[in-house]
From TrEMBL, chain A:
Protein name: Putative branched-subunit amino acid permease
Ranges that cross the membrane: 23-42, 48-65, 113-135, 147-168, 174-193, 224-242
Domain of life of the organism encoding this protein: Bacteria
Keywords: Membrane, Transmembrane, Transmembrane helix
From TrEMBL, chain B:
Transmembrane segments: 12-33, 45-63, 69-90, 95-114
Keyword Ribosomal protein: no
Signal sequence extent: none
Keywords: Membrane, Transmembrane, Transmembrane helix
Organism: Ancylobacter aquaticus
Top-level taxon: Bacteria
Protein name per UniProt: Branched-subunit amino acid transport protein AzlD
Amino acid sequence: MNALPDSHPDDPARPARWFARGMRAAVSTPGLVLVATFIGFGGLLHDLGFPVLAGILSTLLVWALPAQVILVGGLAAGASLPALAVAVCLSGVRLLPMVVSLMPLMRGPRPRLLSELVCAHFVAVTLWAEGFRLLPKVALEGRPSYAVGLGCGLTALSMTGTAIGFYLTGALPGPLAVALLLLTPISFAILLVRNARQPVDWLAIGLGTAISPLVANSPGGLDLFWAGVGGGTLAFFIARYLPGRRA
Amino acid sequence: MSFYSTELGAMLVVIFIGFLPNEVWRVLGVLFGRRIDPGSAWMQWVQAVATALLAAVVARLLLVPSGALVALPLWLRVGAVGSGIAGFLILRRSVLAGVLVAEAVLVAGAWWLGVSP
C-alpha cells in the first residue's frame, strides 16, 4: 500500500482535526459513566487521606481504576510497597489482550512505535469498547490521532471527575456521600459480570470474592495478592481439568 | 505520618508503584502483540488471576469499607451491589442502569435507616 498517495500531504491541520473529533467523541454515555466512577475514586481518595494532586496524577498516568484503587487502598491499609507493586502489576494483565486486539484499529497506515505506545497508553476498558465501536468508521490515516484524541478526552474528563469527587465528598449530606463511595465497587462488579464469558471467569470471580475475607489482614498487606493469585490459579485449574467442562 | 501523605511522596509512589508496573502490559502488548497468543494456557491463567484480583478488590471494598460506607450495615452494601448486578442483567446489560439501580437501593436503604455519618 506504499504507492497509495496521501490525500492531503501538506495539510498539517488534518491530524489535529482527527484529534479534535476523537476528543468530542469522548463525551458520550460510556464517557459519562466513566466520569462518575472517577468521581467515586475522588471520594475514596478524600476518605483515605490520599493527596489530591497525586490522585489526579494517578488517573493520568496509571489510567486503570482497579490498579489505582489497589494502590491507594493498599497504602491506606499499610501494605508494603513491593507487595503493592506486584498487586498493581497483576491487576493490569487484562490490558495486554485489550492492546493486542485494539491495536490493528488504532495503528493507521504507517505504523510507528512511538505513536503505538502513546495509543496503547490510553487503552483501558472504556477506550477499548468505544474504540471497537467508533474506529472502524474513521478513515485509516486519521485513526491514531482520533484514538489519542478520544483517550485524551476521556482522561481529561476523568481527571476532572477525580478532583470533583475529592472536593465534593466532604460537602455532601450522608446518603449522597455514601452513594459516591459505592460507585467504585458497583462499577467494578458490573465490569466483572459484563466481561465474564467462560466458566473460568465465573470461577475466578467466585473464588476471588470468597478468598478475600479469609485472607483479610494477612501480613505484609498481601491479602489481594493471595486472593488474586490463589483464586485465579484455582479457577484456572478447576476449569481446565474438571471433566465435562470444556469451554 | 508516612512519606506518601505528602503530595511529592505520593506522586513518587504513583509513578513507581502505580504507573510503571501497570504500563508494562501496554508496552508488552505493543512490542510482542503479534507474537502473543491470547488463547495460550499462560495467558488464560494470567487472565484468571486478574479477574480474581478484581473480584477481591470489590469484596474488600464492601467488607472492609472506608469512610461513610462504614455507617451502613453489611447486608445493605452487599444488597445494593447485588441489585445493581441484577439491574444490569435485566435492563439490557446497560452499565448505567445497573449503577443507578444499585445507587437507588443504597440511598433508599441509608435514608430508611436514618444513616448520618
